[in-house]
């Protein structure tokens, strides 16, 4: 299957997943609110049914029934037990003498503990400030106040009041989770793009480099049989250089093949990797008027770390190549230093190139971002992944100044490493 077809399938899968999430999620929220409003309407219907029920009871009364006694009995036996909200009866001095649905034992107010008295008085004050009370008059005479009835909110009233806030929270959570999932899937899709590209590159490298190795072997065997040993020796030296670069191409293919794969870290002398990489580039940097010199100063001789040798070399090569590119046409020095700092090996690579603007310090590690006129902007992104995801280290720009140079820093943990 071609890489482009794989990517198309991945994009379609992402799109379908997001569509399913929003369709199913919207249906779940809609059904939930329909169920909730249905239950709420039943509670409200139950609350308001008290009045028609009382009216029905009143219509069916015989003419000789004492209406006042009937209302009192009905209120105490039918209404009070059915309510689900706090209610407090107070005398004309606003001293409670009866209450329901409050976590205070029902008995004479004066015999209560002070904490229970304070609890009732605070609730009375709060309900009064809210206007949740009714005045009781004797024989409907406005000048003969005999008490107060303070009442709280019914459960349905509370649910109705909080419903817009709950709905808003659900919608915000739903959209936030959807946005996070979409972002995560987009990032994963982008990662799969780079991984697929890397593996395809490794595959494409494999065939021509294998062929080159074969042709070089044939050339070497024929040159060794020629009559002019001096000419053969010179050509064999060229072949040695070509073989070195072909081997590096094979290593590059191997590195790309490791992207997105599980790697095995092995005990390695880090100092040797850095020195080997610096030496390789020193023989290939510009000479003459724009000469570039690479210096390596080490304080980690004999230090062993568990790393993937190829991936660490790849990271160093990316940083050194960036330094060389930044100094092209100018020349100067690239200084590499290594030392043990606390529980890490610290590697710094400094150049005297064009520098990087401060607002780019973080962005240069993003895939596709580059300060060069040409390039894909993958080098530093891959370096960050190699250091931070595969080796649990850190990579950053320590300092940079335009037209003066840049210093990159790598920290590799040495905790629990065994020599």
Question: How helical, in percent, are the residues?
Answer: 55-70%
Low-confidence stretches: 1-9
Q: What is the terminal separation in angstroms?
A: 45 Å
Radius of gyration: 41 Å
Q: What does this entry look like structurally?
A:
The protein has 419 residues and is of the alpha+beta class. The chain has a domain at 262-413: Histidine kinase-like ATPase, C-terminal domain (Heat Shock Protein 90), CATH 3.30.565.10. The protein has 9 helices and 11 strands. The strands form 3 sheets. It has a 5-stranded mixed β-sheet with strand order 6-8-9-11-10. Strands 2-1-4-3 form a 4-stranded antiparallel β-sheet, covered by helices on one side. It has a two-stranded antiparallel ribbon with strand order 5-7. It is elongated, with a radius of gyration of 41 Å. Mean pLDDT is 77; it is low at 1-9.
Strand and helix map with partners:
Blueprint: H1 3-48, H2 50-59, H3 67-82, E1 87-91, E2 96-100, H4 114-130, E3 133-137, E4 145-151, H5 155-223, H6 229-258, E5 266-269, H7 270-282, E6 292-298, E7 304-307, H8 309-327, E8 332-341, E9 344-350, H9 379-390, E10 394-401, E11 405-413
Parallel strand pairs: 6-8
Antiparallel strand pairs: 1-2, 1-4, 3-4, 5-7, 8-9, 9-11, 10-11
Helix pairs in contact: 1-5, 5-6, 7-8, 8-9
Give descriptors for this structure:
disordered N terminus, 419 residues, 11 strands, 5-stranded mixed sheet, Heat Shock Protein 90, single chain, alpha+beta
């Amino acid at each position: 299957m071609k890489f482009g077809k794989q990517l198309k399938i991945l994009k379609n899968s992402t799109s379908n997943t997001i569509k399913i999430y929003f369709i199913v999620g919207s249906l779940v929220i809609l059904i939930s609110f329909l169920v909730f409003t249905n239950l709420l309407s039943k509670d409200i219907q139950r609350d308001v049914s008290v009045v028609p029920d009382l009216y029905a009871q009143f219509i069916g009364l015989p003419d000789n029934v004492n209406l006042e006694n009937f209302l009192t009995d009905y209120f105490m036996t039918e209404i009070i037990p059915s309510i689900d909200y706090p209610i407090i009866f107070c005398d004309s001095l606003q001293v409670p003498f009866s209450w329901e649905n409050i976590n205070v034992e029902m008995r004479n107010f004066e015999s209560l503990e002070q904490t229970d008295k304070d609890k009732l008085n605070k609730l009375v004050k709060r309900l009064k400030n809210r206007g949740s009370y009714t005045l009781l008059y004797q024989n409907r005479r406005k000048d003969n106040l005999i008490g107060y009835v303070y009442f709280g909110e019914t459960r349905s009233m509370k649910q109705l009041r909080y419903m817009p806030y709950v709905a808003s929270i659900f919608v915000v959570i739903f959209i936030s989770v959807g946005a996070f999932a979409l972002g995560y899937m987009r990032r994963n899709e982008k990662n799969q793009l780079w991984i697929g590209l890397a593996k395809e590159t490794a595959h494409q490298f494999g065939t021509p480099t294998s062929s080159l190795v074969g042709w070089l072997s044939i050339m070497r065997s024929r040159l060794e049989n020629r009559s002019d040993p001096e000419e053969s020796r010179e050509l064999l030296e060229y072949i040695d250089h070509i073989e070195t670069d072909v081997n590096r191409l094979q290593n590059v293919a191997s590195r790309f093949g490791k992207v997105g794969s599980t790697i095995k870290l092995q005990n390695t002398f880090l100092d040797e990797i850095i020195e080997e990489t610096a030496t390789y580039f020193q023989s290939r940097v510009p000479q003459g008027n724009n000469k570039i010199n690479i210096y390596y100063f080490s304080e980690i001789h004999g230090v062993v770390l568990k790393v993937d040798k190829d991936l660490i070399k790849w990271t160093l090569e990316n940083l050194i190549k960036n330094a060389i590119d930044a100094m092209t046409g100018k020349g100067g020095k690239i200084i590499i230093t290594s030392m043990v700092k606390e529980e890490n090996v610290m590697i710094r690579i400094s150049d005297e190139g064009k520098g990087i603007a401060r607002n780019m310090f973080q962005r240069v590690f993003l895939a596709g971002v580059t300060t060069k006129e040409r390039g894909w902007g993958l080098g530093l992104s891959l370096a960050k992944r190699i250091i931070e995801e595969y080796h649990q280290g850190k990579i950053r720009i320590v300092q940079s100044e335009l037209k003066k140079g840049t210093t990159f820093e790598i920290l590799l943990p040495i905790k629990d490493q065994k020599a």
